[in-house]
Amino acid sequence: MSERIAIMGGTFNPVHLGHVRLARAVMGELDLNRLMLVPCARPPHKTGAGLAPSADRLAMCRLAVEGDPRIEVSDIELRGDGPSYTVDTLRRLHRAHPEAELLLVIGADMLRDLHLWRSASEVISLARIVTLPRPGVELGRLEASRAALGDEAADRLLADVMATPLVDVSSSEVRRRVAAGEPIDDLVSPAVSRYIAERGLYR
Questions:
Q1: pLDDT of 87-127, one tens digit each?
Q2: Cα separation values, 103 from 79, 126, 160, Å
Q3: Which pTM does this prediction carry?
Q4: Three-class DSSP category at 130
Q5: How many domains does the chain have?
């Protein structure tokens, strides 16, 4: 049986307890023993305002999963210049692990816009797309993806929407609390909380 590697990307600005909880839920649900957290350099669909430096986001991810050998943190998207495109990351991972099955873990809000991604058809061919539910996001029949990518692709995407618990934690709430001088101990790990304080992030 070939290796299966789950990839969970994002800005992780900062990484919070919900991210780690979801990563572990995905591994449990799909019986995986390896998941990669991949902080992106600069997401093409977001501005850089309020984005902590790449090195800090990478360090916080490593602190958040310290002690869990099943979750590794990759700097694969932080080595290049310019925006991070998922298709480029999947191409590199496919070259590095040609025998592995790649599983790309995304949120329902991202699945809804998947047809707009760069080389969306290639993304779907390189990785199995596993989708996590998001509060308030209804997917329906993915009509836009159905029109752009075909019925078979849309049906395959809908078949891999997981029934993981909804996690009501957001990075924006962490940043808001830090800026307001409010505690964040219930949102991030103690190590990440200390790091944010020591580095003076999000103030």
A1: 999 999 999 999 999 999 999 999 999 999 999 999 999 99
A2: 22, 9, 10
A3: 0.91
A4: strand
A5: 1
